[in-house]
Design brief:
The structure holds 4 protein chains of 4 kinds. Chain B is mainly alpha-helical. Chain B is built from 15 helices and no strands. The longest helix of chain B is centred in the middle third of the chain and has 31 residues. By secondary structure, chain C is an all-alpha fold. Chain C has a domain of about 190 residues: MetI-like fold (Orthogonal Bundle), CATH 1.10.3720.10. Chain C has 13 helices and no strands. The longest helix of chain C is centred in the N-terminal third of the chain and has 36 residues. In chain D, a hairpin with a 2-residue loop joins β1 and β2. In chain D, the strands form 4 sheets. In chain D, strands 6-7-8-3-9-10 form a 6-stranded mixed β-sheet, sandwiched between helices. In chain D, strands 13-12-11-14-20 form a 5-stranded antiparallel β-sheet. In chain D, strands 15-19-16-17-18 form a 5-stranded antiparallel β-sheet, with no helix packed on it. Chain D is of the alpha+beta class. Chain D has 2 domains: about 220 residues, P-loop containing nucleotide triphosphate hydrolases (Rossmann fold, 3-Layer(aba) Sandwich); about 120 residues, Beta Barrel (OB fold (Dihydrolipoamide Acetyltransferase, E2P)), CATH 2.40.50.140. Chain D is elongated, with a radius of gyration of 24 Å. In chain D, α2 packs across α3, α2 packs parallel to α4 and α3 packs across α4. The chains are: A alpha/beta, B mainly alpha, C mainly alpha, D alpha+beta. Chains in contact: A-B, A-C, B-C, B-D, C-D. At the B-C interface, α1, α4, α5, α6 and α8 of B face α1, α3, α4, α5 and α6 of C.
């Protein structure tokens, strides 16, 4: 059986040549594959490399890490987890609850992380008062990006309340442009809805989205919030479904649309197009949410490793992530703000400086909330249940806000 | 085996023939359209795509998107392009296809020429595996691969593809060998050839057409697989995962021309095997008759 | 009685079974073992990773209470029916047409067949682009001067499902064509000649003689298409991502999202069991008839 | 003990027994034909001799060695298949020497054997061709050649001529007969064609429903069939079977049969033992050639009985004319010389050779004449 022989040999050779992770390497599962993100991550890789820790890259892009989470589940089930995994909010808590994450408390105590990381973030980075993840950044999601020329054409000021917002949108509609650039994907609709609910008051947000109080979820205020969402649908063009968020940003950039409600990562698109904050576009907090911040935070969750050398590399990586210099360098590139509050804002632009100030302010005022849309308010099952209702409401499947609110309460209850 | 060039006895009028040609051409356009769109737009600078007509030929031809997709596009943390992943795919696909085809051939041989009590049951059970949705096997498969120590290795990936491929390859070879005269096997037995010798000297030399079908089928399926690749590929991820990383990058400017070039690059090997004339010919050789 | 059974003969008796055994064992474990695992899982309260806390039929109750699951079932019914019927019709028509001694058959055949070679990312991306009103067909028509042209199915919750049908038909109808063509070429020419001598018109010839003779090809096509339809995951994800809203949710996407992204593995498993039962309901009678016939 | 012994052999598939206690001893150099309708078990028996099917009971011995469970290739047999079973990917020469190669015969010896057999069968010019390029007759020769090259103890033929057209079949039949006479090999030959059986064999085993109905020389089988099945299966046209009653006249047993007009006629038997059947019903068997015109009757026979009957149909067949009449309500066929003056619808004087007549017990269908 000559053919048998060759295939067997080939298989044997493959076994041996399969890239072997050396003990002092960190294997990193992440979904930062676009130019800016990868460049930011490269900073970390280089820092680690200088310290003698190798980097084995395992990028899995798509859908805010959904494919990556599937891959992760396979790896963990197989008993072969990566060293560090880019992760959002409750996923970290869920994995920690499974006992899959490593304990970084010793390092965290030595480095004093407790003092510099906002409490709202620590809620995700720690489990059972043990540190299990290292936060890289904070994105705040309640931003509105407005084309300056379009705003000026309305003759109105940047809106600070819901009514002002509607007035501006109406004017823009009269001017013949699409008032609101929006991409029809569940998470984008949920991002907008986060802003609306937070705009109705931090209390409602806290009760409904964080405490998951059925009364708040199905109540009159929530019904009003849904009415607002349905109202916003009327300012969106018909071609919104499935549109990527960056295409929506492009509409604002080239004046086709008036504004976009999107997290701080949208800024990168404006900057890349050569637009200047304040001159070409303005960034404001979602009307009614001034002083409050909904955030999501990219963190690297550290998975249990049995090999001592790997554990060392893991600690090295956690330290490198929390290094203030890296936090600054990374977030300047990425458009977010550092997860540590003690990082100098020197390198950041105006929007970045404002973001850092807002974060610090909200942190002290207790108005820093995890974003429901980005999995920082409630676990994945609940988050997706809210997506279902929010998207359906946006697409006009409920008669009114009250019906949507009732459906929301029901869906959240079912998902718990 | 029916000759491919056999004439039909049906004769048609001139008008009908014109209509037939027209329909066939329209459908050819329908099938070619997406390929045309991808091809044309992969040869344009990005500005021409976002600002111009998708169907229009490039006003400024460029191969840059192709170069970028192949060797400089951002896939992970390094701007490697699809090149290294292409190699990963090859290293995985070739052994997986070879093993699953050989195993399928041996199974088909046993199931038709060395029949035993209950062989149809065995075959039926194996055949059903073709129809299992792959999503459901991910978790248990991960457990098994972990136990075998094959998690995140190319070998593990090969094992997965072989396991879920032998249903099809066995089906193909079984149907093909079913029409192969059993008397030949008996003659060879009397001549003194053993189990493997009969397979090697008598059946394998005439298995060309079906082997081609099996290889193409397996090659296409394995090459195009994303789910297993992303879950079990570990650090040697296949081409599809890389393409996904290229196309699905979450933030930043979408370089559609590069995406199209990458998509075509990822599809090239399978296109190549399909467009070859052997596949249809092999299909004609009876693989789908059963 | 001197029963001299030599070693070689005994080995020859066992060798075939030995050769088949690994494949069979692997199938038992990796297919039936895993199916069993999924069934067990569907009765547990598994969330993120498998957990063996027994919850009885709770997951099934939850599953059938979810509106999205009902959407998925209705969608798969519509999709599968349209997809199978249209693919079969187009495949049959192209095969019959190609069988008319067509010049250039060698060029046309691979053109019809090639979409089957492409992966879902490629197919989905290409069609998503082409059907997008803002950049695809509609815009092209507008640019060519047909201002009133409107084609917004992919953005329309009511119609998006049909765009999946279009893309799916595009991908597999050529393959169905090849199957029918193989069947047509296998028909004895003398039967056709006899029918013509009997005075059958072309139409009657195909309707009364050829199409009935293609029964095995119809059956194979039906089975392959229905299993592709039920497993239709990739295309939906790439083309519409289940949207607009959840208008194009299918059982496969439903199962995937509950198992892997919503951390409700128990419900995901119960939907998988329902899917498996559906597949079995289609496949088992077919396999039974097919294998029995050949005995 | 014979050269090839089949002792008490049975074959069962699960609970179903398809061959029942077959007992045949074949002498060296014999040409045994297994003949019977399809499904009678003849091919199964052949496959059991070859080792292609297992033996459920009893034993088979070749040259005194019991071969139950012995691999086909170790039995020193060769087989010619109905479809010839030529390996399509090998040339004629490779086909013929494949078995020798498998048995480790060195190349020079193989080539010599091949050359000898090719010459014997006159296929020297075909050796480099592939089977696909050969005509049916050529393939048949190659298949035989492949068997001959092996120089086996026993040749097994499984309906080797049934895929040939009528003329070629007759030619090849002669050829096989010649080969057997020349090589004096032991042959077991399966066919459903009774003419092949009669012409080729030195002995015939007529099989039906898993039983050997009769084992004997062609003459025995033809002249004294053991039962109604053998009588009607062997010979063409088949033996006429006519219901009759045995009546004693002048102390001699006679067959009482009705002619076409319904009158009872008596034909004297040559076999005295039929006296025991006096007054009982029997089946009278008469071969068509035993009913002739008086001039054509066998002169050596000591018992020619005249018989006048109305003719129903005449069928001239060149050398002979077949005449159909009614006997005891059944059609019976007579074989006449071509020039016999028979006219359908008219009466004709036949002569019946009662020496060749046989009688069967209607209940058991066994022959009762010696």
């Amino acid at each position: 059986m000559r053919l048998f022989g060759t295939t067997m040999t080939a298989a044997a050779v493959l076994v041996m040549t399969t890239s072997i992770t050396f003990a002092e390497d960190v294997e990193v599962l992440h979904w930062w594959t676009s130019g800016g993100e990868a460049a930011a991550l490269n900073v970390l890789k280089d820092n680690l490399g200088k310290a003698g820790t190798g980097w084995v890259d395992m990028p899995v892009a798509g859908g805010g890490g959904e494919a990556a989470m599937t891959a992760l589940r396979a790896r963990v089930t197989a008993g072969d987890p990566p060293t560090a995994v880019q992760m959002l909010g409750f996923d970290i808590q869920d994995w920690a609850a499974e006992g899959a994450l490593a304990d970084l408390t010793a390092t965290a105590t030595a480095e004093g992380w407790d003092k510099v990381v906002p409490a709202a973030l620590q809620k995700f980075s720690t489990y059972d008062s043990k540190w299990v993840a290292a936060p890289v950044n904070v994105h705040s999601t309640n931003w509105v990006w407005i084309n300056k020329a379009a705003l000026d054409a309305t003759g109105l000021a940047a809106p600070t309340t819901w009514d002002e917002l509607v007035a501006v949108l109406d004017k823009m509609k009269e001017a013949g442009i699409t008032p609101l650039a929006h991409g029809g994907q569940p998470w984008q609709e949920a991002t907008v809805f986060d802003g609306i609910v937070l705009g109705m008051g931090g209390d409602l947000y806290q009760k409904a989205f964080i405490d998951l109080d059925p009364a708040a979820l199905g109540g009159a205020e929530m019904a009003t919030a849904f009415d607002h969402l349905i109202k916003l649908r009327s300012y969106v063009d018909d071609n919104f479904s499935g549109r990527d968020w960056n295409l929506a940003s492009a509409m604002v950039i080239n004046g086709e649309a008036g504004m976009q409600m999107m997290g701080d990562w949208a800024k990168g698109e404006f900057l890349k197009a050569g637009k200047v904050p304040g001159t070409d576009f303005v960034c404001i907090r979602f009307p009614g949410t001034q002083g409050s911040v909904t955030f999501n935070s990219d963190q690297f969750a550290m998975f249990n490793q049995t090999n001592a050398a790997k554990q060392e590399a893991q600690v090295a990586m956690a330290k490198a992530i929390m290094d203030p210099v890296f936090q600054s360098a990374f977030n300047v590139v990425k458009g977010s703000v550092p997860a540590r509050t003690d990082v100098s804002n020197e390198a950041f632009d105006d929007c970045g400086k404002k973001g850092m100030a807002d974060l610090a302010e909200a942190n002290t005022a207790g108005t820093l909330f995890g974003s429901m849309a980005h999995g920082h308010a409630a676990p994945a099952a609940v988050k997706n249940a809210t997506y279902d209702v929010i998207t359906a409401a946006f697409n006009g499947e409920y008669a009114d806000g009250a019906a949507a609110a009732a459906a929301l309460a029901e869906a959240v209850a079912a998902a718990q | 085996m029916a000759a491919v060039t056999q004439d039909t006895a049906v004769s048609t009028g001139r008008f009908t023939r014109a209509l037939i040609y027209l329909t066939l051409l329209l459908f050819a356009l329908f099938y070619l359209l997406p390929l045309y769109v991808m091809g044309v737009n992969s040869l344009k600078p990005l500005s021409e795509i976002t600002g111009g007509n998708m169907m229009a030929l490039p006003s400024q031809w460029t191969l840059d998107p192709w170069r970028s997709a192949w060797s400089t596009a951002q896939i992970g943390v390094e701007p490697t392009g699809l090149k290294p992943y292409f190699l990963n795919s090859i290293l995985m696909v070739v052994p997986a296809v070879a093993i699953s085809t050989i195993v399928g051939a041996l199974n088909g041989y046993v199931l038709t020429k060395w029949r035993f009590r209950g062989d149809t049951w065995v075959f039926g059970l194996m055949l059903f595996s073709c129809f299992i949705p792959f999503q459901i096997v991910l978790i248990p498969m991960a457990v098994v691969l972990g136990k075998l120590g094959l998690a995140g290795t190319v070998t593990g990936l090969i094992l997965v593809h072989v396991v879920y491929g032998i249903g099809f390859t066995t089906l193909y070879f079984r149907n093909y060998y079913a029409s192969f005269p059993t008397e030949l096997v008996r003659a060879a037995m009397i001549d003194g050839a053993g189990f493997f010798r009969i397979f090697w000297r008598i059946l394998l030399p005439v298995s060309g057409p079906i082997a081609v079908v099996s290889v193409i089928w397996q090659f296409t399926n394995i090459w195009n697989d994303f789910l297993f690749g992303v879950s079990f590929g570990g650090t040697s991820q296949p081409m599809t995962v890389a393409l996904n990383n290229l196309v699905q990058s979450s933030t930043g400017v979408k370089e559609y021309n590069v995406h199209f070039a990458g998509a075509i690059l990822a599809a090239l090997p399978t296109l190549f095997v399909y467009i070859g004339r052997y596949f249809v010919r092999g299909l004609m050789a009876g693989s789908v008759k059963g | 009685m001197a029963n001299e059974v030599d070693f070689r003969t005994r080995l020859q008796d066992w060798l075939p079974k030995l050769v088949l055994a690994p494949s069979f064992a692997v199938t038992l474990l990796f297919v039936y073992g895993f199916i069993l695992f999924t069934i067990v899982l569907s009765f547990t309260g598994s969330k993120m990773l498998p957990k063996f806390t027994w919850v009885g039929f709770e997951n099934y109750h939850k599953l059938f209470a979810l509106p999205a699951w009902h959407t998925a079932i209705v969608n798969i019914a519509i999709f599968a029916t349209l997809y199978i019927v249209i693919c079969t019709l187009i495949g049959l028509m192209l095969a019959i047409f190609l069988d008319q001694k067509i010049r250039g058959e060698g060029v046309l055949r691979p053109i019809y067949l090639y979409p089957m070679a492409l992966s879902f990312i490629v197919t989905g991306t290409a069609w998503k682009w082409f059907l997008d009103p803002g950049i695809g067909l509609e815009r092209i028509m507008h640019q060519w001067g047909w201002e009133s042209f409107s084609f917004t199915w992919i953005k329309d919750g009511e119609m998006a499902l049909y765009t999946i049908v279009i893309a799916a038909v595009w991908q597999t109808s050529g393959f169905v064509m090849a199957m029918f063509l193989a069947g047509l070429r296998g028909i004895d020419n003398e039967i056709l000649k006899a029918a013509q001598i009997d005075g059958a018109s072309n139409w009657q010839l195909y309707r009364r003689i050829v199409i009935p003779l293609l029964r095995p090809a119809f059956l194979s096509a039906f089975v392959i298409l229905s299993h592709l339809a039920i497993k239709s995951y990739d295309l939906v994800i790439a083309l519409t991502g289940g949207g607009p809203g959840r208008a194009t949710e299918m059982p496969a996407t439903f199962m995937y999202s509950y198992t892997f992204t919503r951390n409700q593995m128990g419900i995901g498993a119960s939907s998988a069991v329902i899917m498996l039962m559906t597949i079995a309901a289609i496949m088992v009678p077919y396999l039974y008839a097919e294998l029995k016939e050949k005995k | 003990m014979g050269f090839l012994d089949i002792r008490n052999v049975t074959k069962s598939y699960g609970p179903v027994e398809v061959l029942h206690r077959i007992d045949i001893a074949v002498e060296e150099g014999e040409f045994l034909v297994l003949v019977g309708p399809s499904g009678c078990g003849k091919s199964t028996l052949l496959n059991m001799i070859a080792g292609l099917e297992g033996i459920s009971g009893g034993e088979i011995a070749i040259k005194g060695r019991v071969v139950n469970g012995v691999h086909p290739s170790k039995r020193n047999i060769a087989m010619v298949f109905q479809s010839y079973a030529l390996y399509p990917n090998m040339t004629v020469g490779q086909n013929m020497t494949f078995g020798l190669e498998m048995h480790g015969v060195p190349k020079p010896d193989r080539d010599r054997a091949l050359a000898d057999v090719a010459k014997l069968l006159q296929i020297e010019t075909l050796l480099d061709r592939k089977p696909g390029q050969l005509s049916g007759g050529q393939r048949q020769r190659v298949a035989m050649g492949r068997a001959l090259v092996r120089n086996p103890d026993v040749f097994l033929f499984d309906e080797p001529l049934s895929n040939l057209d009528a003329k070629l079949r007759v030619d090849m039949r002669t050829e096989i007969k010649k080969l057997h006479q020349k090589l004096k090999t032991t042959i077991v030959y399966v066919t459903h064609d009774q003419i092949e059986a009669l012409t080729l064999s030195t002995r015939i085993a007529v099989m039906n429903k898993g039983h050997v109905q009769q084992l004997g020389t062609p003459k025995e089988i033809y002249d004294t069939p053991a039962n109604l099945f053998v009588a009607t299966f062997m010979g063409s046209p088949a033996m006429n079977i006519v219901p009759a009653t045995v009546e004693m006249q002048n102390g001699q047993p006679h067959a009482a049969i009705a002619d076409a007009d319904g009158s009872i006629r008596h034909l004297r038997f040559s076999q005295a033992n039929l006296a025991e059947w006096a007054g009982k019903s029997i089946h009278l068997g008469i071969r068509p050639e035993a009913i002739t015109d008086p001039e054509g009757a066998d002169r050596k026979s000591g018992n020619i009985q005249p018989f006048t009957n109305r003719v129903t149909v005449t069928e001239p067949a060149g050398s002979d004319t077949f005449v159909t009449m009614t006997l005891s309500g059944k059609d019976a066929i007579a074989r006449m010389r071509a020039d016999a003056a028979v006219v359908p619808g008219q009466h004709f004087d036949f002569a019946i050779n009662m020496e060749k007549a046989v009688a069967f017990d209607p209940a058991t269908e066994e022959r009762i004449t010696p």
